[in-house]
Amino acid sequence: MVVGAVVAVLRPPGAAIRSAILHFAAGVVFSVVAVELLPDIVARHRPLEVGLGFAIGVGVMLVLRSLTRKAAEKEKAGPTPALPPGVLWASQTAPDEAVRPGALPMGLLTGVGIDILIDGLLLGIGFAAGAEEGMLLAIALTIEVLSLGLATAVELRQDGQGKARTVGIVAALSALLVVGAGVGITVLKGASDNVMELVLSFGLAALLFLVTEELLTEAHEEPESPWLTSAFFLGFLLFLLLGMLV
After folding, report:
1. Taking the CB of the first residue and of the last residue of the chain, which one, N or C, has fewer CB atoms within 10 A?
2. Tens of pLDDT, residues 27-76
3. DSSP per position, 46-104
């Protein structure tokens, strides 16, 4: 994930490539929902827990998006900072004085963080089931976290975040993979079906929100073309095929 962020920072993609990356990442995440989460949730057959976990997930993501938008609007509506003595135009200020980073996209970051955490849980459970299963799942998840690292870094840079801060945020998010793997191996391996349904249903709602309200919304800011749309289905198909090998 950090590698993807570094690549995006050092070689910032153009608008079309940015849209393709976001489409691809959305396809991969949607495939994770269809291949990894939904079958497991349906197999446990706990409708009450699924409804509760899903509702909590949607509510949390809506609240976070509302808070993020209010913070962004407040920042835009804030008073214009006074210019230094002798400076008549904002263009005369130094670049680091004239450009301030915008508010962090908390909806996107939360969705990505939950995705990475769930990936870690799945990875931990996979290794607990066997070394071969865990290794195949690790290969599949590598593709996903790489694309998410690229997409997240692209969005952070688009919002005016600095290079070092962008890489640092993505690195912090990637640490959730280790946390999730540890929890998956130790805590959730023997958890009851009720607990697992709540956790997975919450993650299901968060990931669907990430795809529909964050990744694809940002991707569609660029005029659509067949190859941009196909990037979504390519991401979905790639993880689907990898998931069949696990």
Report:
1. C
2. 888 888 888 788 888 998 899 999 999 999 899 888 888 877 776 676 56
3. -HHHHHHHHHHHHHHHHHHHHHHHHHHHHHHHSPPPPPPTT--SGGGS-HHHH------
